[in-house]
Structure formats: structure tokens, C-alpha cells
Amino acid sequence: MKTTISQVSQHVEETVTIGAWIANKRSSGKIQFLQLRDGTGFIQGVMVKKEVSEEAWTAAKDLTQESAVTVTGIVRADERSPSGFELTVINVDVISESVDYPITPKEHGTEFLMDNRHLWIRSKKQHAILRIRNELIRATYEFFNDNGFTKVDPPILTGSSAEGTTSLFHTKYFDEDAYLSQSGQLYMEAAAMAFGRVFSFGPTFRAEKSKTRRHLIEFWMIEPEMAFVDHEESLEIQEQYVSYMVQSVLKNCKLELKTLNRDLSKLENVKAPFPRISYDKAIEMLKEKGFDDIEWGEDFGAPHETAIAESFDKPVFITNYPKDIKAFYMKPDPNRDDVVLCADLIAPEGYGEIIGGSQRIDDYELMKQRYEEHNLSEEAYKWYLELRKFGSVPHSGFGLGLERTVAWISGAEHVRETIPFPRLLNRLYP
Asked: What are the protein's UniProt keywords (predicted)?
């Protein structure tokens, strides 16, 4: 019976055939231990010389790392195995040999591994991280579909910037200037006025010359936008969504988390509601922690976010940032005109901001004033202004960075390991 490694639990004491690659191999003379992987998981195959044909034994003995094979064997339950199962190998058919595979079981430098990223993703740790990424994607669609959201795809090529920044990738769009999208948010606001609650899930691009462990040039964002939803309700949806993702990984990625030696207790505690502190309070906390140089009105960097997160055992919202350091579209706090109705969600364990969100300005005249203050082209943004003219309503939204979230949940040290083929300041290969 043909099956996969992830399905062997359904075939205990049955003879199965699996298409696989040789991840590693060792021998103790009359027994060969084959570490097999097939994309769905890893399993050890044990071949005993006296129990197989001479041809099968010789074929297995000559196997090299990453050779492709078809393996036939009997599935055995084995408590010592990480997966709980082992394969008693009866026969091995070689599909193709692998010669001089570059990534051996020894230690390799990061740049070497990145140069061989197309092969590195086969390894156990990288495989586990990317499987967790896949689970977060699956859980994202499930959460928003189950909560009445419609998926809408904003354009990747745009004529303007959502954030009004200069860190844009420029290209020519026939005889016009165009840019790779930094965010789909403005378009999602238009979609929310048509569908009520929407979300997008797509690539975004930031031409920031940053080399930190939290930054990528190309990354994926989940950007929900919600009509008739104020800032407070948006925060509740955010914490429910993040809780849902974490609990889904705990439920469906037990083996991957074990492979990564992830401390499950830190994840098990991630359940809504999350603590909230104001920007004002965050400034006080930082000064108490020795950050004497931070002043009100300054944005937070990675060390500041990490220091704040250390005081909590869950993600924490920092709310009501100063108006002058946030985007033009954020709604002012009705009780204070110097701060806006916004929040950043800071992940625990030093992983920094994973969500930025706010209630959006819904007043036509105020938005027009913001255009003037930020020197925004009314020609380029006319359509966005018109959303406040034709049936404007209170609305809110947020953006979650997938790679930072994967890094936090998987415990990865650097976001470059959380995307199949990272684009970094010095890397466009492979």
C-alpha cells in the first residue's frame, strides 16, 4: 500500500511503500538505519541484513545522502521515535542517486546555508519552521472565513505609497512611475466599504537598508479592514486572531515544536485577552528600566520593545502613540489631539512588533487636512479621499507580519529562516 510518512499511524503492522529521500544513514554492520523524509515528515527505517535479499541490502548500503528511493517496509509503533513510529525495511528501490550533496550533518556557516537555501529547506529544523508557517496560513484563512470576512486581493503595483515613505521599490509602468506595494491597506479600506469585513494576504516590499534579525525586504502581510468597527473592537479581534493561530500550532504542529525544542509553556499561555498599556505608560516603564534617553514623542526601537515585553508573559498592546510619529490616516483620540487611536502588538521573548493597527479617519474634512499636512498628492489619492465622501463610516484595521509571527511562535532566531527564499539587503539568490 502506498502512503506517506505523515499517514503511517493509520497502517501499524501493515506493509507500506513510501517515496522518500535519504536524509542520513548509519550502519552497525548487520543493521542499517535509514533516516527517511518525504516532505510530510521524517521516519527511521531499519533494515536487518538476514531479513532482506542481498540485492536490497546492497542497494541500501550504497545509498548516499539525499538519494531518492522507494522504500517498502512494515510500520511499527516505537515510543523511542520522535514520531512514535519506525519502519522495518523490506526493500529499497533507487530512483536517483545524489552525488556530493553539499549540506552534510556537520556545522555550516550561515552564508553557506543561505547560498544553498534551495537545499537547506530540506533539513529537519527548517522543515519544521516552514511547516509551522503553513499552519499559521491555514489557521488565518480558517479564522477569517469563520468570522465573516471576505478575502480581497489588493494590487502589488501601485502609483503611491500607503505610508507616505520613501522606502519604495520604483519601476516603470509603461510611461508612468509605479511602485511595489508596501501595504494593501488603502485598497482594503475601499473593499471594506463594499464588503463590510475583508482581509488580504499577500507580499509587501520595503526598500529599507536594514540588516536586523527582524527585517526582510520582501515579506507577507495579513491585513484585515472592518467597517462599523471602532478601535476597541479591533483590538479584541486582533487578540482573538493571534490566540487562534497560537493554539492551532500547539494542536497541529506538536512534532515540529518538539523538533525545534520550543518551550510550550510560553505558547500555552497565549490566550485572549492581552494586556494593554498606553504609550505614556510605556515611556514611564522604559525610564524605570534605565532608558533615560527616551523622550515622549520618539518611536520605539527593538531594545525598547523587548524591554517592555519582558514585563508580560503574553503579547502586549501599546496604545495611543503620538500623532506625529504615526501614519496620516489614523484617527485622533477624541480626548487628546496629540495621540491617535492606534496600537502595536508586541510579541513576548524579544520578537518585537507583530501587528500595527488603528482606527482610520472617517471625516472628509479632517482627511483633506491631513493631505495638506503631509504634502500628499490629491491627484494620486483622490479615490482614497472619496471613501470619506460617499457613505463614510467608522472603520478600523490592522496588519500582521507573517514572518515575525512565525519567528516568535517557532522560536527562530532570525526571520530569514521563516520564509522559503528570503530577500535581504545583500541577498537576491537563490
From this structure: Aminoacyl-tRNA synthetase, ATP-binding, Cytoplasm, Ligase, Nucleotide-binding, Protein biosynthesis
Q: Which CATH architecture has domain 118-417?
A: 2-Layer Sandwich (3.30)
> What digits encode the pLDDT tens for the residues 190-231?
999 999 999 999 999 999 888 889 999 999 999 999 999 999
In CATH, the number for domain 5-96 is 2.40.50.140
Each residue's pLDDT tens digit, 153-195: 999 999 876 555 568 998 999 999 899 999 999 999 999 999 9
Rounded-to-integer distance, Cα 139 and Cα 419, Å: 17
Q: Are 245 and 405 contacting, i.e. CB atoms less than 8 angstroms apart?
A: yes
Q: What is each CA distance from 345 to 254, 298, 320, 368, 400, in whole angstroms?
A: 25, 17, 12, 29, 9
Rg (CA), the chain: 26
Q: How far apart are the C-alpha atoms of 181 and 157, rounded to whole Å?
A: 6
**pLDDT tens digit sequence for 265-301:** 999 999 999 999 999 999 999 999 999 999 999 999 9
